[in-house]
Specification:
heterodimer, A: mainly alpha, Rubrerythrin, domain 2, two-stranded antiparallel sheet, 9% strand, globular, B: Glutaredoxin
Chain lengths: 182, 105
């Protein structure tokens, strides 16, 4: 179980490191943070409070807060989908917050429903499997911390980020492709 | 008055929020953790509108799929809250103006 204070502090440092702000409406902010806390408690990772999660870590990765859609939404609307993170305009009251369209692909949203039934059937969160299973011959991968940018090269991401103490769920894979011209 | 689940015969657990204004049939698909959904529910309550709601994340899977199909068949998007007025008008997201217009308030 995480605490509301932890969720708040994490969001604050995440906003600061990216030059964003948290929603200036105190009640709305509290409601959002409580939603994230509840998701972290029930799913094991802080998925977006305003989206339907499947309960499968791998599938929900793109909607783990801060979600993959935050940057383009901030750029276009001045705040993210749930409005936890806002830009300067909203923070200073120059831009108003409104319900914005969902940027997550419809295919992913539709599939959430199927994946969630699988998740219930398995009754084992993927995050746990990930932490215990270490099959031999796994290839080394590049990982980066979505919160502070720390990069490491290993089979699995660290349990806790050594720099900012973010949880394993905050790590994402980096895919490298090389293109050599002769 | 706390919302009460409707009759036992109904499969889907719909919560009914009573209100003086019951001119329109209002159904809200919501997510229990969603701040926008909470705003929408509060707005309806504050305006004394009678409505039903379903928290999709707390639903049984078969109900979730029914909800998904119901929203998509009406041309909506899987975004919450989704508000359906009189089985006719679908409003995606908490859009106060559109809700007011649909409910004539």
């Amino acid at each position: 179980m995480t605490t509301l204070e932890k969720v708040r502090r994490r969001a604050e440092s995440e906003a600061k490191s990216h030059g964003y702000y948290l929603n200036p409406d105190r009640d709305f902010l509290k409601s959002l943070l409580e939603g994230i806390k509840q998701n972290e408690d029930r799913y094991g990772y802080p998925s977006c409070p305003c989206r339907l999660a499947s309960g499968k870590f791998e599938f929900d990765k793109d909607i783990i807060c801060p979600c993959d859609y935050r940057e383009p939404d901030l750029e276009e609307y001045g705040h993210c989908y749930c409005a936890l993170y806002v830009g300067k305009g909203v923070f200073e009251g120059k831009t108003t917050i409104a319900s914005i369209p969902e940027r997550r692909p419809l295919e992913k949203q539709t599939k959430t429903f199927t994946v969630s039934s699988e998740a219930i059937a398995e009754k084992q969160p993927e995050a746990t499997t990930m932490a215990t299973e270490r099959p031999s011959g796994t290839k080394m991968k590049m990982w980066y911390c979505k919160q502070c940018g720390y990069v490491c090269f290993r089979e699995e991401p660290p349990l806790v980020c050594p720099i900012c103490k973010a949880k394993r769920e905050m790590f994402a894979r980096i895919a490298i492709s090389t293109n050599i011209h002769g | 008055m706390r919302p009460q689940p409707l009759g036992k015969k109904r499969k889907m657990r719909t919560m009914m929020v009573p209100g003086e204004n019951n001119r329109h049939k209002v159904l809200v698909y919501a997510i229990s953790t969603c701040a926008w959904c909470k705003r929408a529910k509060k707005f309806l309550k504050d305006n004394n509108i009678e409505f039903e709601y379903v928290d999709v994340d707390l639903c049984a899977n078969e109900d979730r799929e029914k909800i998904r199909d119901n929203i998509l068949n009406r041309g909506g998007s899987l975004s919450y809250p989704t508000i359906i007025v009189d089985n006719r008008i679908l409003i995606t997201g908490f859009q106060e103006d559109k809700i007011k217009e649909a409910l004539e308030i």
